[in-house]
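The authors assume throughout that readers already know how a fold can be written as discrete tokens. What matters is that the chain and its backbone geometry are given together, residue for residue. A single example would do more here than another paragraph of explanation. For illustration, here is how one protein appears when written out as sequence plus structure tokens.
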Amino acid sequence: SPGGARPMSEFRSVTKTFPDGTRAVDDFSLVIPARQTTVLVGSSGSGKTTLLRMINRMVEPTSGAVEIDGVSVLDGDPVALRRRIGYVMQNSGLLPHFSVIDNIATVLRLNGVARREAHERARELLDTVGLDQALAERYPSQLSGGQQQRVGVARGLAADPNILLMDEPFGAVDPIVRTELQQELLRLQRELGKTVVFVTHDIDEALLLGDRIVILDRAARIVQQGTPDEILTAPADEFVAAFIGADRGRRALHLKQTPHGTVVVDADGRAQGTLVQSPADLLDAHPPRATDEVD
């Protein structure tokens, strides 16, 4: 994908029926753009994790095509495919009897990288995901949940994959740690520019992290896709409006005049903050005249 010009991944008319007859995915098509974060969001049973696992062939489609840069994921060795794609899951999936540094180096070692070189790369990744080097020799049981997830992200990045799959990676940690990990992912994406496919059931997380959001109903039916701005300002139907909470809480914000100035309040009238104008906004509102001095 030179320069990220081509779609990195594409689903075309994909279906998935499990042996018990469950239709998890029904005629699903989607282009996932390169070097952006695409979030698949939906309630339990919407097929989002099944779709994610089709990209690295942990689940194979019953029919249709899943391609990366125009090549079917069904072509070639599935193990080799998985080693080229980063994968981060909810409970980190770390190997309990491996130290942190060996966990991060796992894929590199499987790819034939020498131990010393793999460990050097693993130590660099500790810095990348904001972990102290002193943790390198510890074991997963000696880490907090947030630290374990950071190690999981480091392991997913170890082989420098173009695609990083993230399956509800922050769902099992407390809200404060979750917020930290979300901000860390935003920073990593600004620095690394990976093609990230992120699965969540949390619409707030989707709106925060996604460049593009795909809202799914049962059997992976796309109800709406677009940027966070597009979905917030123009929900496709009542299902989406209810799902994003357009009529309540933090979504239904309006301005309220008070003796102390204008504040932003939610649907229940609780103050949520104030409007802050950027220098660019102020210039737009009051463009400098020829006689004005502008620094």
About this structure: The chain has a mean pLDDT of 87.
